[in-house]
Here is the input.
Amino acid sequence: DQQVKQNSPSLSVQEGRISILNCDYTNSMFDYFLWYKKYPAEGPTFLISISSIKDKNEDGRFTVFLNKSAKHLSLHIVPSQPGDSAVYFCAAYGNKLVFGAGTILRVKS
Amino acid sequence: DTGVSQDPRHKITKRGQNVTFRCDPISEHNRLYWYRQTLGQGPEFLTYFQNEAQLEKSRLLSDRFSAERPKGSFSTLEIQRTEQGDSAMYLCASSFGQVSGNTIYFGEGSWLTVV
Here is the structure.
């Protein structure tokens, strides 16, 4: 049972444009959501998080939006940079952290 | 470096051998987690500790797997009689208290290849 889904396996964006990564979840008990970035052969690096009591959290170029009624969250990266190219994981916490399968982001210069 | 530290980073072993991975969490963190990641998948939860107590184990953690955190600081994950299906990256993470409002930080991972 996949409780956290990232339906886009990959995304390609031009440098300077906006990258939007999407994530859907099924478990309404999740109360905290996180985005991680991962390079090959490295562990996931924390990017940004949001509590279920909020609908938006911003940190520099990264903004996470949460739509609880739709059980959907998204990560916006503006402007996208080539160094942002990596795998992005959405994760949700109920009593443990559950990850989606990831989206590969490629930012073209 | 005060992040989560894992050792070894890479391990190649023959099928049937035992392997052990070590994790040193961020020093003030009382929760420690083990995850496993295979190619094309997100990290999958294996088990977690609060201090020295192992509070939850996933069904993925067969009886060949055992994890310990004897003094509430570092942890070890042992895999006995390794199988080729055990080949994966084993990730350790730590946090202070519950995740909600407190981030889980991951180590660099330990790659296991079973040949």
The radius of gyration of chain B is 13 Å. The interface with chain A takes residues 4, 6, 33, 35, 40-45, 48, 56, 91, 93, 99-101, 103-109, 111 of chain B (CB under 8 Å).
